[in-house]
Please model this.
Amino acid sequence: MVNRVVALICVSAIVPGVSVAQTEDHLQRARRILSETPLIDGHNDLPWAIRLFESAPRSVRDYDITGNAIGHTDLDRLLDGQVGAQFWSVYIPSDYADSGFARVQLEQIDIARQLIRDYSGHLEMARGASDIERIFGQGRIASMLGVEGGHAVENSLGVLRTYYDLGVRYMTLTHGGNIDWADSATDEANHGGLTAFGEEVVREMNRLGMLVDLSHVAPSTMSDALNVAESPVIFSHSSARALRDHPRNVPDSILQRLPDNGGVVMVTFVPSFLTDNETATIADVANHIEHVRRVAGVDHVGIGSDFDGISSTPAGLEDVSKFPDLFAELSRRGWSDEELRKVAGENMLRVIKTAERTARLLQRERPPSTKTIEQMDRSSS
Model:
């Protein structure tokens, strides 16, 4: 309680004309909305933090999220933060080729699935929108998996389908470097976006109902994916390039295309994506959310924290317990209840439901793709 009062005094000191009582009203409003609508966070790297846990690498039990875990995430803070649904990133680095991407990817999926199983009193695997709504209604946290980087499928659509069967519900097409069929935001252009096989990956993800995640990809890849996508895309953890000219952020030219596609940018908390100042704040995150709303519309913005994947956090968003404070900040800026519900989770629920409906239609129209990168790309190169 002391910390909460101190925080309220600090906020009222930096926001002229806002009293402690008024700030608390906004926080209470935020908490009410998050009790009614599942807050869906697009990206949390806890499984990778568990893999790197120095005392007991890869041990979910020894990492122990029942207590005050060393990172940004544990059960008490998830509950205080009113997280309703979480995409757990099952990230693997792109320099693990010698170990076998698929092997390491399966290990990370195993860690995430152990986490969900071991804390089943609070977490439950969700395989679709109806599961999210049911689990949230039961007072637990709906848990989904997100593969971060298309290198993990080793150019195999069969591997992609296997990940889906294991609970993966989105895949980020690239990570830090280009892959054989797509250009990354943080590498020299090689393909000019997606190759023919890359387009087939997107089509097969749509057929499965796996969300196409365009965080980390080059603008040319974003554009190509939007050209071929039959379902809404997501950006699981990106911010607005117009406010911070960082290659990981989304240009306005892409934001303007989201209404036609139906996709969502889940604004991230990575400080270097938010500002070129030394420190970022909760206000910077709100600024990026408002920019996405201004350019793409309120139906196309969400939250993708990247907790436990970042070494520093914006002031006011130190860990997963702080989500309500972000919604209180938006409330202070005049956001309506309807708008707050959309950014919290309704937009993502719509995306997931649309992807599921599209997948059911596509599965009636075409079988699983058996195309290979050799057939589609290398034979013409």
The CA atoms of residues 114 and 369 lie 31 Å apart.
